[in-house]
Specification:
By secondary structure, the protein is mainly beta. The strands form 11 sheets. It has a 22-stranded antiparallel β-barrel. It has a 5-stranded mixed beta sheet with strand order 10-15-16-13-14. A hairpin with a 6-residue loop joins β19 and β20 (353-368). α7 (396-403) packs antiparallel against α8 (432-438). The longest helix is centred in the first third of the chain and has 18 residues, at 258-275. The relative contact order is 0.12. The model is unreliable at 1-15 and 391-395 (pLDDT under 50).
Length: 1016
């Protein structure tokens, strides 16, 4: 349906023919050229000119139909006015769409590279707090892993797999031409998280070498170009968008209730003699029934007084409100706009929230016929209270919720907090509700992002553009752990910490663009430019401990009796780049692109600071050939291929140089600080490079009612930057070197179909699938690299899960075999991989992987008159989750609460089980990373179900509006999966390649949302 923007009008009356004039623009304010304006069921009509204008003589009350090849159809009624301003909606799949590419634009039909595009209309279908979340499932080859359900979330984006082993795998983000510093901010956040997604007009994802090579040194992980909304050239507009939502917990994890917990504790005591006969004889174990005499917890018969559901106590309904207000105005000479945003989001876990205030101002003005200037200035102030922080004991919150004893109340009748330590012999920390109230983790972030540009027309077809951009990020982390929080800050009598970080980035770019057509069959687009960028960072940290009360928290570190030594650090680096691109087209059929970029970085050795990143691409628009005219079913057919190199430089600054560090030396019992060399130099350090080959096909059938895009690619990363281990005799642990290589091979397919298109009803389907296979090709000396529960091994995918194979439990019939391994019936039976009759680290092997084999989206949109219904399904397969929370929630019975699965533990009558016989922790238990903790995490998710109603133009006009739309949606409606945790799409350890690690993750909510979009 076409969106019509009309001022308020009085009711119309029929009259004789009169001359009316109109201006038709698209959503961006650009003239809509060639739109047909015709009398409905009549022969009178005209079309818009090069400025989007038309003139027509018709009677008042006439219904006009507007339609065009590039635009969706709609109807308007002629009233008493003589002039009209109309906004039409562009068909997003049309080949004439203009696509943003690095340092310029191209028509989609002229692209030679693999570029995915998402418009703001699509983003508005699924409102969320960050760009990464909104991009999920929109573009093939782009895997968005949402790692946390906390307000604001935390998401990783991987474009065509992992390109590096131990440096950044995040794509490069470019906002209105400003390159964001690839900085790892507090708690796993990145600079893109602080962009207001309501300001986005379009997103382009550059995937292959042809499209990313223009960004050379930092294009190896793909590039995401974001264009924000500008002013309107068709007069003043006021737009208000709002959404309100409630998030609920989709599922609860099954843990033991009070009765079951005490039964398991009794059973563990009974089995202690079997697994620790010596300790049993020496009186090491006490019958738990003898300690159930606390009248605050038990009645006179030893029955529990409480049966607390800690998940119910810790969770809440999460209310969110989001408001976006924009003012835009302008004409053909210039435009401007102001955009304001307020977002207040509460988390599922009590005490967690996020508040964001954002403002942005833009302007574009044609000062002279040869000079156009413009700019953008955006500011965001975001405050958060987090409970799932990666550091500072962050994972403890959900662990404490799940391990808290059901026999303990939140508070006793006297108002004091209950906790696991109120029942002797327990672990599991303090009261989780107390932790949520008394452990404070406030993250305050202020960002400034802006640029200013000037376009100078030097000659016909020759333009010079100069831009200056800057991104400033200030973060302050305020932390306080209360004096009574067990396992957190009780031992220190309160802990207060303040961390300040400042990130500054500026860039200065200048480039020439030349556009020319020759003899009607040759087209040339040439680009030549240079760029400078500077990035610096400074941080400081102060802390204190030992407080007499909790009053001051982090506001008065001097109140602590034990101040900690302050620390500070600073880094800086710079880049100097030269880039060029040549696009040539012959007869609009044969397209060629050559790109080259020379980058220099201060991070590398003096002999290797500069590197060249070239690429080439070709495309053949087969559908433009004369022999294809005889095949009317094919409306578009294009074949394309590209090959090129891109780079990755996102290591810490100064890695090529020897580093200095702090040392403490004690002389005569007195501590003396000193400075010494802490890192070896490597003057030969050079760029990491990724070579990529891509071949693609674009096919449109039946006037593009069916459109298909297919890509196959191979990426090979060489000279990978690794922290290679050193012999301990060197005095150092590692040195950054260029050793190792890795490849990604994949296939991408997207299909868009218009199944039904009638006047009052339409049905559109979108399906995409991305298949990627990752493999490590070479490593330092061929040796494996171990990181926690993962291994990086030649011939295997990156970050594969590494552990022992769980074969179940030893049965009573296998008592003799179990004895060979110093085990008893009821113990875990592990695979003896090398058959040496012992179980140790040599028996570990790859037991799973978090990287999926494939992922994608299946979405259907139905429109009936003014109603629309969107059903959005997300799927992923071939991925596993290593649920490390099983370690404590299934292995350590009797000292904290457990998963209900321990009720299926080994007994004489239940021997076919993977769960060992219950026993006290001192009696010995297995807690290895093994295959029992790995689950197939393939899933199908009901990502978004949305019902919307757009009020008709006549009704909107009577309300003195230009547009009114209301909608309701359910996000994360369901998840079909074998995984038993909160959500199979999890990755929360903070490692760059740890997708699929579950560890007490913050649950993702099911969101019920209502919203409206209003334009004046």
């Amino acid at each position: 349906m076409m969106c019509i923007v009309l001022p308020a009008l009085p009711g119309y009356v029929r009259a004789q023919s009169k001359t009316i004039k109109g201006t038709v623009t698209d959503e961006s304010g650009a003239p809509a050229i060639g739109v047909s304006v015709a009398v409905k069921q009549g022969k009178t009509g005209t079309a818009t000119d090069a400025e989007g204008k038309f003139t027509l003589s018709v009677p008042q009350g006439t219904v006009l139909v507007l339609s065009g090849l590039n635009y969706e159809s709609a109807e308007i009624t002629v009233d008493a006015r003589t002039e009209y301003k109309i906004t039409v909606k562009t068909k997003s799949s049309n080949l004439s769409d203009v696509v943003i590419v690095g340092y310029g634009t191209r028509k989609k039909s002229d692209l030679t590279g693999a570029v995915g595009t998402v418009r703001s209309e699509a983003l508005m279908e699924r409102p969320s707090s960050s760009l990464n979340q909104e991009l999920s499932g929109r573009v093939t080859g782009v895997n968005v892993s949402s790692n946390s359900g906390r307000p604001g979330g935390r998401a990783n984006i991987r474009i065509r797999g992992y390109s590096s082993i131990n440096i950044q795998n995040d794509p490069l983000y470019v906002i209105d031409g400003v390159i964001l510093n690839v900085a790892g901010l507090q708690n796993g956040s990145t600079p893109i998280d602080y962009l207001n997604p309501n300001d986005i007009a379009s997103i382009e994802v550059l995937k292959d070498a042809s499209s990313t090579a223009i960004y050379g040194a930092r294009g190896a992980n793909g590039v995401i170009l974001v264009t924000t909304k500008r002013g309107s050239s068709g007069g003043g507009k006021v737009t208000y968008d709002a959404d309100f939502s409630v998030g609920t917990l989709p599922r609860k994890l099954e843990v033991l209730n009070a009765k079951e917990f005490l039964q398991v504790e009794d059973l563990a005591y009974q089995n202690a003699q079997k697994y620790d006969s010596v300790g049993w004889t020496n009186g090491k174990y006490t019958n738990p029934r003898t300690k159930r005499n606390n009248p605050l917890l038990f009645d006179s018969q030893g029955n529990p007084l409480y049966d607390t559901d800690w998940q119910d106590e810790a969770m809440q309904k999460a209310f969110t409100q989001n408001h976006q207000l924009s003012f835009t105005n302008g004409n053909e000479k210039g435009s401007y706009g102001a955009f304001l945003n307020y977002r207040n989001e509460n988390g599922l876990i009590k005490g967690s929230w996020q508040k964001r205030y954002a403002a942005r101002f833009v302007f574009d003005t044609q000062i002279k016929d040869w000079l156009k200037v413009g700019g953008t200035l955006g500011y965001t102030d975001q405050n958060e209270k987090q409970v799932d922080q990666l550091g500072g004991g962050g994972i403890v919150t959900m662990r404490q919720v799940l391990e808290a004893l059901p026999i303990i109340p939140v508070k006793f009748p006297d108002g004091s907090w209950g906790g696991n330590d109120d029942y002797p012999g327990m672990e599991g920390g303090g009261n989780p509700i107390q932790v949520l109230e008394e452990r404070l983790y406030y993250l305050r972030t202020q960002t400034l992002l802006g640029n200013i540009y000037a376009n100078i027309q030097l000659a016909n077809g020759l333009e010079f553009r100069t831009t200056v951009g800057a991104n400033v990020i200030n973060q302050r982390l305020d932390y306080y752990g209360g004096r009574d929080l067990n396992y957190i800050s009780r031992g220190q009598r309160g802990v207060a910490q303040i961390t300040n970080n400042r990130y500054n980035s500026w860039q200065f770019e200048n480039y020439l663009t030349y556009n020319k057509q020759f003899s009607r069959i040759h087209s040339l687009n040439a680009l030549l430019g240079l760029s400078w960028q500077h990035v610096d960072q400074f941080s400081n940290f102060a802390a204190s401990q030992g407080f007499t009360d909790d009053y001051f928290k982090f506001y008065n570190l001097g109140a602590g009796a034990n101040p900690q030594a302050p620390t500070s650090s600073g880094t800086a680096y710079g880049l100097n780049s030269y880039f060029s691109r040549l696009n040539y087209g012959l007869m609009d059929k044969y397209l060629v692109t050559f790109t080259g970029r020379m980058d220099g970085s201060s991070k590398f050795g003096s002999n290797n600071r500069f590197a060249f990143f070239p690429s080439a691409a070709i495309a053949w628009r087969v559908s433009q050939e004369n022999f294809m005219k005889a095949v009317p079913a094919i409306s578009n057919l294009k074949l394309r291929a590209s090959y090129g190199a891109t780079g990755n430089s996102e290591i810490s600054a100064y890695q090529a140089l020897a580093g200095l560090g702090n040392y403490d030396v004690v002389f005569d019992g007195v501590r003396s600080p000193g400075i010494g060399i802490s890192r070896m130099s490597n003057n030969e350090l050079r760029w990491e490079k990724t070579l990529q080959l891509d071949a693609g096909m674009e096919l449109g059938l039946f006037n593009n009612r069916i459109s298909l895009e297919f890509d196959v690619y191979r990426k090979k990363t060489v000279d990978m930057l690794l922290a290679a281990p050193l012999p301990t005799t060197s005095g150092y642990t590692s040195i950054t070197r260029n050793i190792g290589s890795m490849e990604n091979k994949g296939v991408e397919l997207s299909i868009n179909t218009t199944n039904i298109e009638q006047k009052d009803f339409s049905w559109n389907t979108q399906f995409n699938i991305s298949i990627n296979k990752n493999k490590v090709l070479a490593l330092t000396g061929g040796s494996d690299i171990y990181s926690g529960a993962t291994v990086i091994r030649v011939g295997e995918p990156l970050g594969a899960f590494f552990g022992r194979v769980n074969l179940g439990t030893w049965s009573t019939q296998e008592k003799g075999q179990a004895a060979v391994y110093n085990a008893l019936p009821g113990d875990i039976k592990y695979l003896d991989r090398n058959n040496d009759k012992q179980i140790n680290d040599n028996d570990r092997m790859i037991i799973g992987k978090g990287i999926p084999d494939g992922f994608g989206t299946f979405m259907n949109t139905f429109r009936y008159k003014n109603w629309s219904l969107t059903l959005d399904l997300q799927y992923m397969y071939g991925n596993d989750v290593l649920d490390r929370s099983i370690h404590s929630l299934e292995d350590r019975q009797g000292i904290a609460n457990s998963y209900k699965t321990v009720l299926n533990a080994w007994t004489e009558t239940n021997q076919n089980t993977p769960i060992a016989q219950v026993r006290p922790v001192p009696a010995g238990y297995d807690t290895n990373n093994d295959s029992h903790k790995v689950t197939d995490a393939s899933f199908i998710r009901g990502r978004n179900f949305l019902l919307a109603y757009t009020f008709p133009a006549t009704a909107v006009t009577r309300m003195k509006l230009n547009r009114l739309r209301v909608y309701a949606s359910v996000q994360n409606a369901f998840v079909a999966t074998k995984y038993k945790g909160y959500d199979p799409e999890v990755s929360n350890s903070g490692s760059p390649f740890d997708q699929g690690f579950g560890l007490y993750d913050y649950p993702k909510p099911r969101v019920f949302m209502m919203g409206l979009n209003v334009t004046l």
